[in-house]
Amino acid sequence: MNKKWIQNLAQKGIGENFQNEYNLFKNIRSNDDIIKYQYALLTNLLIHAEEKVPYYNSLLKNFDIISDGTINIEKFQNIPLMTKEIIRSNPKSLISNDYINRRAYYQTSGGSTGEPVKLMHDKAYQKGRNAVNYYYYRDILGIDWFEIKKIFLWGSLRDILKNKPSFKSKISHWINNIVFLNSFRMTERDMEQYIGVINSYRPELIFGYAGSLHELSKFASKNHLHLRSPSYVVSAAETLRDDMRGDIEEAFGTKVYNFYGSREVSNLAGECSKGLMHTFDFWNYLEVLDDNNRPVKEGEEGKVVVTNLVNYSMPLIRYEIGDLAIRGPVQCSCGCNLATLKMVTGRTSDPFIKKDGTILHTGYFTHLFYFREWIHSFQIIQEEYLKIRIRFVPSGVINPQEKADIEDKIRFVMGNDCAIIWEIVEEIPKTSNGKYLYRISYVWRELQKSAQKNPEQNTLSK
User: Fold this and answer.
1) What angle in degrees, to the nearest 10, is found between the helix axes of 19-26 and 3-17?
2) 3-class SS of residue 91
3) pTM for the predicted model, two decimal places
4) Cα torsion at 255, 256, 257, 263 (round to 10°)?
5) Which residues contact 55 (CB under 8 A, 6 or more apart)?
6) What's the CA angle centered on 206, arms 201 and 208, to 5 degrees?
């Protein structure tokens, strides 16, 4: 049987699964259409939350924000913000009493803020998320997700621990024309091999963690290794600083597009050809607020607050996601009518480094804290090559088996001689500029300082 025919059939089935949602999105063209569609979804969500979700039952009635089937947006903005602490304190009352009919499943937040929480998503949410992803690539970047060849420079904890991808992952990657390169652990040999794969596979799209793309780009440039230019490079999951963007674009010889998403509410915004990040307003109601919880003006920085419009199993209304962003103009010259962000300014973390130069993406370590109910928040610090400190705020009784499991998986990648120090604290400290840094490597920072003083010296190989 023809390989391409099987792929086309499988892709057609996947696409049809979210085709209705995608058709709705692409037919929303004017600003008025966007506002009407968004407000209709928001109204339906609030009615559902008030009727079916215990936490919101009394809360929303107190604000009387829905009248004659429409929303009074001023009253909506008076609703108290949803926080990770509220989610953690109300795990059952935030779940809709009809979730069992929605093919719901549990998820956890990404932990980039050091406070992972347990969430619930469902089948409708999953379809909408896939439709938004498809919309971004097809209608903003102008490429068909299924047709193009893709390389993912991404992380998989399971692949590292088992030393090979699962059969299910292999099938999924094959169907979607994806070659997966695990960036949770990158030795110099790995990066040489990855560059070889990129050059031989000749992908149209490379998608990856901002930090991983940056490290691979620096390695290629420092060692004078050619990287074949894809048509698109899409950076995600971490803050894409200007210096990182410049290094990646120089190494790959093409523009980098920044994509903003989260595990809690999925796709939030994607960059267009003009350099602005369009917010997916048919999927999320996104606010950027100042310290007084009022909307910021164009060009001002504020905290990102999101209401997902599709997840009825566990609605998150006005959820403070833990990121900072700068609000962009309402209109963009690229032709897309979705509102914009100029940039996302939160989310910073250092990679961890082994003495042999192996780069360990801190996402590996974040994954170790998923679904650990006894950890309220954490900060993981690489103080020396073989010394890791874990500061954590406990929530209830410490689970010794899970604690040992975390230590085993840290030593699996850092080495059996790695010292792991647990430190109970009352709160995770902020930096001098008021931000939280939950993943810090003093080893990495010292190497960066050394590299700046001696730009010709490859400090990672020492």
Assistant:
1) 70
2) coil
3) 0.77
4) 170
5) 90, 93, 94
6) 130
Asked whether the beta carbons of 340 and 278 are under 8 A apart, the reply is yes
* pLDDT for the residue numbered 433: 44
Architecture of the 1-348 domain: 3-Layer(aba) Sandwich (3.40)
Strand partners, 279: 269
**Total Cβ atoms within 10 A of residue 453:** 9
Q: How many residues does the chain have?
A: 462
Return the residue matching tokens 């937040």: 109
Q: Cα(329)–Cα(340) distance, rounded to whole angstroms?
A: 6
Query: 352-454 adopts what CATH topology?
Result: GMP Synthetase; Chain A, domain 3 (3.30.300)
Q: Which residues of the chain have pLDDT under 50?
A: 159-160, 432-434, 455-462
CA–CA dist 168, 159 (Å, integer): 12
| Domains of the chain, residue spans | 1-348, 352-454
- Token pair 């709160």 in the structure block, residue: 427
Q: Which of 223, 214, 222, 220 is nearest to 198 (CA)?
A: 220
Helix 31-52 × helix 54-61 angle, to 10°: 110
Are the C-beta atoms of residues 14 and 179 closer than 8 Å to each other?
Answer: no
